[in-house]
Structure formats: C-alpha cells, structure tokens
Specification:
The structure is a homodimer.
Chain A lengths: L1 E3 L18 H8 L3 E5 L2 E4 L1 H20 L3 E2 L5 E3 L1 H5 L2 H4 L6 E3 L5 E4 L4 H11 L8 E10 L14 E11 L2 H22 L3 E5 L10 E7 L5 E6 L5 E3 L20 E4 L6 H11 L13 E9 L5 E9 L6 H8 L4 E4 L2 H6 L10 H4 L8 E4 L8 E8 L2 E7 L8 E2 L19 E16 L1 H6 L2 E3 L5 E3 L1 E7 L1 H12 L16 E5 L4 H16 L4 E4 L5 H11 L3 E5 L7 E6 L5 E5 L3 H10 L1
Parallel strand pairs in A: 1-27, 4-8, 16-18, 18-21, 26-27, 26-28
Antiparallel strand pairs in A: 2-3, 5-7, 6-7, 8-9, 9-25, 10-11, 11-22, 12-13, 12-22, 14-20, 15-16, 15-17, 19-20, 22-25, 23-24, 28-29, 29-30
Helix pairs in contact in A: 1-12, 2-6, 2-12
C-alpha cells in the first residue's frame, strides 16, 4: 500500500494549536492526525485513523487469541438498566443524557456493565455455559468537566471493554489472569514503556484490580514503585505501611495543656518545643494527630460528617479519599457554617474527645493506619487554645475504622516492609483489569443453575483498554523534540520515502522503490510532492514513521540513504539491496 | 478460524419475537444475530457482527480501490455547523439533540455533510488538491418516528458515507461515475438481487441521483421499471410522460355549466355523461382537472397555500409530493378552516379562475405535466354547483409551474416514450449516489483558488451505503421458509459442520475436518454440542451458512454429506477428498 503525500488528505501545520496543553496533542494536530471539533471531540484524519486501527487490531487479535468473543452494543442506551444499578443517578453530570421524540430517557454509554450483564442473563442459564468472555470495541461518551490534552481525555473516545463471567471465585481468578496475560502481550506489542500497578478496587465493590500505565510526565495518574522489590501501585491504591503496635505500659497519663494560639500544626509544634520541650528530641509535626473534618454527600442523597485523624506531617490526599469513598460521593472540608452547626467541634483544636467513642459531635471518625495501638499523640483537647499530650491510641481513644488517605511521598517505606522506599512517577492509564465480583449480577439478577440445580449469582471481571487514548499515550511516551516517533507496530506506515530534487530519475527510482516495497507487503508513505527537501524532511520527522529513506543526491552513486527516525542513524544502501534491506529492517 | 457452537455466544430461539414485523427481523433475532435494546436500537451478537463486518470490509475494499481515503468524524457533533446550513432546524424531531454540562447544544449526527465540507475547507485551498474523495464508516443516529423491522430502519445504524470534491461539473461527473462503478462492484460482491433506479434529486438542490435497491416485498421504497427499455426509477423520481401539445384552433370557447351536487370526480363524470353526453366517447375521470389545495409550512417557518392541478383520474402521491417539496417541508390538505379563510375557493368546484393568472385566492398553482398546451379540460368554475367545459390549457389558463406528483401506476407509459410500460415493485434502499452540487460549499464557504488565482466554490457529490441495513436487506432478499440463507461473501462462516450421534469417532472426524478447513483459511462453524441431530440440523438451517457438512452415519462408509443450504442438494464426499472438495465449493 502506498500513501502518496501529493494526494494524501493531510496538511502539516507549522504553528502549534492554541489549545494544546501537552506535546502529543500539539504534534498530533500539527502532523495532521486529528482535528478538534468541540472540547474533547475530535476527527480522526487518515493518518490518525491508521494508527487507531492498528492499535484496535492488536487488541482484537490478542482478545480473540484467548477465546474472547466480540459483539457490539449500541452507544445510545435506554435509561432503565442504569436505573436498576443506580448509575443513572450516580453518574451525575458526567454522562450525556437525552430524550427521544416521545420523551423517553436515554444516555450515551460511558461503560456497559449493565448491557453485558443483561445480555448474558438473556442468553445463558447454566454453569455449563461458563466461563464466558465477551468484548466490544466501541465509541464511549463521558461529559468530562475538563476534557484534556486532545484525545488523552476526550468526551467521545474508543474503548475495548471485556467482561468475564464465572460461576465462582476460582473461575474469576483464572479469567482475570488470562486477561492480564493478554493485556501484557498487547502492551508489549504496542512497543512503548509501560508499568503495571495495583489499583484501587474497594470503591466499586470488587477485589483485585491493576492498571496498565504509560510512563509520561504529563500523565494524570501518579504511581509509586519500590526501589527494592516489584511493588508498584497507583498512588490512590498505595497501602501505607502501618508500624507494629507499641507497648505503652510506662506511658504517662494523658494530660490537657494550655496551648493558646496554636490552631495549626506549625504553631502547635513551635509552642510545644518552647513550652514543653522534650529531652530526647524536639517535637515535630509527626508527633501530632490532625483531625480533618469533611462534609460528605452520598449518591443516594444522604449526607454525613466524616473526621479523619492523620499524623500532623501528612495531608489528606483528595484523590485517594475520592477513590476510597467511591464513585458519585462528593465531599468538601468543613466550612464556617458546618462548624457553627456543630459547636462541640473546636475548630483548630478538635480531638478524639469530641470524635471518639461517645460521639458527642455525631461525626464518623476514621484513623490513618499509622495510628496503631500504643502510639502516643498530641492532639486537640476540644477546647480552643488547648491540646492533650501523651494521648495513647487504643488506651485513650479509638476511631470507627481505618482509612488510608494520607498523601504518599517519595521515600515512604514500601508496604512489603522489605526496607525498600517508594519513588513516585506519573503515567497515563491505558488499561485496567478488575475483579468486579457480583455487584452488577446482583443488581440485575444474573444467576445460573449450578451443578446441583441451584441458582447461583455469577461473578464478573471487567477489562478495559482505551485505543484512542492509547494513540495519544504512545505518542506522548515516544515523541522527541522534532516530532512524533512511532513504535513500528502502530506507525501509520512502515517506511517514509522522500524524493528530493527535480531530477526525473529520482522520482522514477522513488516510485519504483515504493512499488517494490508495497509488493512485498510493506505500507509505504511516499513524498512525491514538488516541495523543497527541507519541507519534506521536516514533515517526515514530524509525522514520525520509523524508517525514512531519502532518494536523491546519492542516486548517482547508486545508493539510497536509510535513516532511523529515533536514533537518527543514517546508512547508505545500494539501490539493488534496498528492498531486501528495508524489508529486513521493518520485519526486524 | 473455528466457531464452536458449544462455546459460541449464541442461542437460537424457537419462538418469533413479538415485535418482529418482517421475516428478516424475525430470523435475525431467532438465529441469534441481533438483540433489541430499545425501539430501533440493537445489539450485534457475534454472528451478526461477523456479517456486518464482512459487509463493511467489502465496502471499504472497493472504496480504497478507487482511491477514496477513510477518516472518522465524531458522532457527537456541535450545533454550530448545522445552524449554518439551517439543518438544526430543518431536521425537526428526527434528530437526537442534547446539551452538555455547560448547556452547549449538540446533536448525534444523522449525516455529516457539514463536517466533510468543513474539514476540506480546513485543510485544502487550491484546485491542485482536487478531486478529493473521502469517506467514513460510522454509527449514525435518527430519531425515526416509526423505527421499523429491526435493523432495517434503526435509530442507531452504521453508514458508509463518502463525499467527492471537485472544481467543476465535469469533475463531479467523473467522481460520480467512479463511485457509481464502485457501488456496482460492491453490490455485485454482496451477492444478492438489486436494482439501480433513478432517484429524486431536486429537493436537495443537486442534479443526478440514483439509488441501489435490494428487491424485497417488505421494502419501503416503490420503484418502477420499463418492460421494454432499461428505465428504472424510484416512484418518487418517475418523470411522467407528458403528451405532445395539441392543436386547439377548432376548440370551442370555454363555457360554464350548471353541475349541481358534483363535488367529487365520480359525481361530476356521471353528471357529464347524463347531461352533456359526448358523441365519440363517454366522459371519464381523465377528462377532468382536479385542483387539490394544500397548506404548506417551510422549514424557515413561512407558510403558503399550494394548489396542484392533476387529471381527475389521478391522486396526489404524498411521498412524491414530499420528495419534491424537500426535507423539512410539512404539508396537509386544506381543511374546513383553511377554506373558510379563503372564500374565493369554492370547495369541490375550484378552478383556474381562482387559482390562475390574477390569483384572486392568493394561492400558488402548479400543474401536472400532462396538462400541456392545447389539452381540453372540465374543471371547477369557482362557484358551487358549476364547472367549466372545454377549458384549454395555454389558451384559457396556465399555472405558476409544473409539479410531477400524481401517483404512478402499473401500465403507465415509460418516460422514454418507447412504447414500454412501467411495472412497479418494492425494494429496500441500500445505497445512494448523488450529485450534491454546491449547496453545502455555498453555505459553509468552501472555496479554493482556481488556475487563475480566482476563488471558486467547490462542487460535491455524496455517496452512501448502510452496512447495518444491508445485513437486514440481504437477509430479507435471500432467506427462505426454513431460515436465513446468506450469500457466500457475507455469511458468518464458510462451512457449517454438524457432528451427529454419540460416536467418539464422529466427533474426532468432525474436529479434524474443522481443523483442516481452518488451516486452509476457511471460517468453520462446528456444531460440537451434545444435542440431537434434529436440533442441530434445524439450527444449521436457521443460521444459514451456505454449505452444511454432516459428519455422522456416513462415516462408516467413509463419506461426509455435503449439503448446499440454498438448493438443498446433497452429495456424499469421500472423507479423503472432503477438504479439497469443500475448499473448491467455497472458493468457487
């Protein structure tokens, strides 16, 4: 196949698009891969569509290889199934809703759990039918508050979503592993730098969950890796290492002290070091327990106040809190009005006295995992201008449970407790494998008969990859300062041939080479335009086909110049050897 | 590739779905190809998706072969471009509209003329860039008032839409012909019975227009063919044969007569034969001119009264009128209130006196093409109980123009005036090629520089095929009384192998045959279920793979039975020859 630049529907741009925030977006627009139609809504021009389709085909290929079966749901969906799972409400503003001419409610599908569950319920009825793995590759829709970075976070985007259906947890484990393996093969084939990290699963009611992230400084996800073992997790899913319980037999009794004008951790620590100096070491923020109170609204409309006790040297990480509370839960820190409504809470001096067992303030109280039995804290005395010292967890106070939402920092100990330290980096989520469990099967009544003729609820796994986001993520992960630089398997062509000069013989030789390579099954981009060599080389570098062949000056010496787009390495190849040489380069 | 029925995600149904109106719908649901989610909204199960993809790939193949380039627009589109062409309004209730979280208006694209026009305007600027042929294969949306017959008229459906862009009309003619030829190849490959008919083009402002119809009794389109020449046209687009002008030198002067109680053509003709008998032949309905008045509302909100004068033996065909008036124009016959508002119009006795040149009634007056100069008519005298006789067209009255909207009948003369007669039949529109002209380029300002550096407006062609409708249309066109019966190129598999009995050897032989055929590149459906032969044969007939191989009783004699699904013809083929035999059958 030959793509001739004289007729290919592409125009490269010299100027960066005004709205481009990240390099991949800038280059995909400038190189003529995509065009913006509305915020988060893009047209795929021929070059972009070629890359998208190559990614889709790799995904399809590996899904088919494990025996998953492709089907295709509508994107325009009736409301009813989403009511049954309460997601019509839970999604809030983040889905597109519409009505038909008769006033019936529809949505544009953001994910299809309901549809997958219902079609299996419709067709299958016996354990003998399981396991079943089905998938689709389809346009999905989310009305993002902040569509971002071109196709990286679009409002219309392509997803491959698979679901597994099993009779029991052991089956789910096998289905999960098969999909995880297929995903690993997919990402290996895509040919760029990725990492598999543990992901938060709790909020959706499932158990095991991992994400495939493309490494990229512009990524929206932060993940950590251990510098010693293979632990890696999305920052939302990091389990903080809890210290062992501490003996507290010799701990003094808790005692409230006057600490005027110490509503912040910094002022408190200064005050402690000045008025209550310790012999062995100065007070520091980590000795204090900070109790942060949030106003929380659940998807069902109920509200509550939630206090979180964390060491004073940490902050509550909003993303970690969001992922722990789950989809559709909205929260914000207590404001003046909230405090006014609960006079028991002394702002700046809140302590377990108001939050703990007897709950005079009527607030749910969750503690950071580091607050283990026997640890000793300075914390609010529930009176303005006063703190309690030597308050011992498990002796003097306890919470209603644990919540692990403090910020994660470089240098934090690895939860595997092997002496390794965590290091953070950023990535783009490209895939997600997830043990969904029985949430949707329960809500929609997906049961089958087991071996004993008893109805049992099916357990499901959910496995997603975003091919359109992958185009941007791979671009972002592989580009360099002069342009896009595609991995071979997803490049819009195998070879980019540039004919330079005005000599007829040059164009004839370039045309012949294009045809010969095409005849050998290669996809050739051939720059047959009447343009200057400078323009053609710049375009070739911008478009990012991995191998660039120059047919020009060298022709009199009987050679073509073959350049590797990434390394920049150039080789003169005799005309007679060029086809075999290039086929070998492309096929590896 | 082997599709094993023991694990394939399919369940055949014995019962017809309650809402199925046509055979293809009934069978596609029963055989497990599609499932309904909402009116006009369907899920493609694996079998259905295979057929859909095969059709899409044939279409893509032939589009690529003529040098058309594929791209992909979003389905979720901003309102603005559709405002610029007024289609946001014109579409009325028939598109899905929605708003995003910021209140901005969007629609789900029903067709993409605006987007194609704008992307070319964005990228191209010179005549040197033309001709350009671009296309996409994509989900489209229409909020049909009456979604019908499953996927035959869905609300979410797949379209391949191409557009050509040319600098002049000669270029458009070449682009049109290339697409018409490609379509002919596509429909030939799809392997079913179709007809190419002239289509109505006027309403959309274009010129040449043809449709590709699948012959099917359940089709929504009626077309006619000449029994002598190759004339074929959608009934909406049939040009009625206008007689030659008639000499009227010896015609008597027009004279009004009393015709009490003759408000209908029948009563009038009876009255004429009784009171004003002719010597040569009796009066008949075709001697009278019937003036039918409509109240018309245009998309821009303006209204008018429109009278149509047609021979009394014809009716105004609402579909023909609709297609002549154009998209978004709404009309209904004058009611009592309308007549009350225009007392000049004597209901039942309306004539050119009130409608013609001086327009006392203020009504636009269009005439059937048969009302040529010199023809002599009996028509209303604009006074209740009175008609005019010997009213000569061109002498005594004229209209504001011609409109060809009378019903077309079997036996009408062919417009080619070759003595041939028209015969009607029904079909399903599957493709449309259309010279769109400059309507969208004008509205959206698509101009390029010509050879002389002058800006000229580009002329466009529009070419559509509906792959999802094609699944239903091909099914409808090819099914028989026992099930689906696919043409080879679109069948979900090449061969359907049925293993019968409980003998291990049978299943081993069937498995081996499946693998051998798969290794030769055939797609095999293999019924490896533990079910009765009766169930398996019924399913094979229902599913409709063109070749059915039975591995069973014959095995002891060393033969498989090969059956042609359409003809029912059976052949015993020796086991050793089976692979070659079947490859030959499939490859033709």
């Amino acid at each position: 196949m030959i793509l001739r630049l004289s007729s290919l529907f592409v125009r490269t741009l010299r100027e960066d698009p005004a709205d481009a925030e990240v390099p991949s977006h800038r280059l995909l627009v400038r190189a003529g891969y995509i065009r913006r139609n509305a915020p988060g809504i893009y047209t795929w021009l021929p070059l972009g569509l070629r890359v998208l389709r190559k990614i889709e085909n790799i995904v399809r290929d590996e899904m088919d290889a494990i025996g998953a079966q492709e089907l295709l749901f509508p994107a325009l969906l009736p409301r009813e199934p989403y009511d049954a799972t309460n997601r019509w409400t839970e999604y809030g503003d983040s889905i597109f809703r519409l009505q038909d001419r008769k006033g019936a409610d529809y949505l544009l599908g953001p994910t299809h759990e309901e549809m997958f569950t219902l079609v299996v319920k419709d067709l299958y009825s016996s354990y003998k039918d399981l396991p079943l793995w089905i998938y689709q590759i389809q346009n999905k829709y989310r009305d993002e508050a902040r569509p971002r970075a071109g196709i990286l976070r679009g409002r219309e985007f392509v997803m491959k979503d698979s679901y597994s259906f099993d009779i029991d947890d052991a089956g789910l484990d096998r289905s999960y592993q098969a999909h995880r393996d297929a995903y690993t093969r997919i990402f290996d084939r895509l040919g760029f730098d990725y990492v598999i990290v543990k992901a938060e699963a709790g909020a959706m009611g499932g158990s095991k969950s991992e994400e495939f992230l493309a490494k990229a400084a512009v990524g929206e996800d932060t993940y950590v890796r251990c510098n010693r073992c293979d632990y890696a997790a999305n920052v939302e899913a990091v389990d903080s290492l809890a210290p062992s319980p501490v003996a507290y037999d010799d701990a003094p009794a808790a005692h409230a002290e006057q600490t005027p004008d110490t509503p912040t951790i910094d002022t408190l620590v200064d005050h402690l070091n000045e008025r209550y100096p310790r012999d062995d070491r100065p007070w520091h923020a980590g000795d204090t327990l900070k109790n942060v109170v949030f106003s929380v609204r659940h998807p069902d409309g109920t509200t509550e106040a939630l206090a979180i006790g964390i060491p004073g040297d940490r902050e509550v990480d909003a993303k970690r809190l969001e992922s722990k509370l789950g989809e559709g839960v909205v929260f914000e820190p207590f404001g003046e009005e909230d405090f006014a409504a609960r006079p028991t809470l002394a702002k700046g001096y809140i302590g377990p006295g108001a939050l703990g067992e007897k709950k005079p303030a009527g607030v749910r109280f969750l503690l950071d995992p580091r607050v283990v039995e026997g640890t000793r804290w300075v914390t609010g005395a529930d009176v303005t201008g006063s703190h309690v010292l030597d308050l011992v967890a498990g002796r003097d106070f306890s919470g209603d449970g644990i919540i692990d939402v403090a910020d994660v920092r470089d240098g934090d100990p690895c939860p595997n407790n092997d002496g390794g330290l965590l290091e953070s980096a950023r990535g783009i989520e490209m895939g997600h494998v997830f043990q969904l469990g029985r949430k949707y099967a329960d809500a929609l009544g997906l049961q089958v008969l087991d071996e004993n003729g008893k109805l049992v609820t099916v357990t499901m796994g959910s496995y997603g990859i975003g091919p359109s986001r992958a185009v941007a993520a791979i671009a972002e992960n592989t580009l360099d300062e002069i342009g896009l630089c595609w991995p071979r398997e997803v490049a819009p062509a195998d070879v980019h041939i540039v004919a330079t000069g005005k000599d007829e013989a040059v164009f004839e030789a370039a045309e012949q080479l294009s045809q010969d390579l095409s005849a050998r099954g290669l996809d050739v981009m051939y720059d047959d335009r009447k343009a200057s060599p400078g323009v053609k080389f710049k375009d070739a570098e911008l478009i990012g086909v991995p191998t660039i062949v120059t047919v020009g000056r060298g022709l009199v010496d009987g050679v073509f110049e073959v350049k590797d787009r990434r390394s920049g390495e150039r080789t003169d190849v005799p005309v007679g050897d060029a086809v075999d040489h290039l086929v070998a380069v492309v096929r590896g």
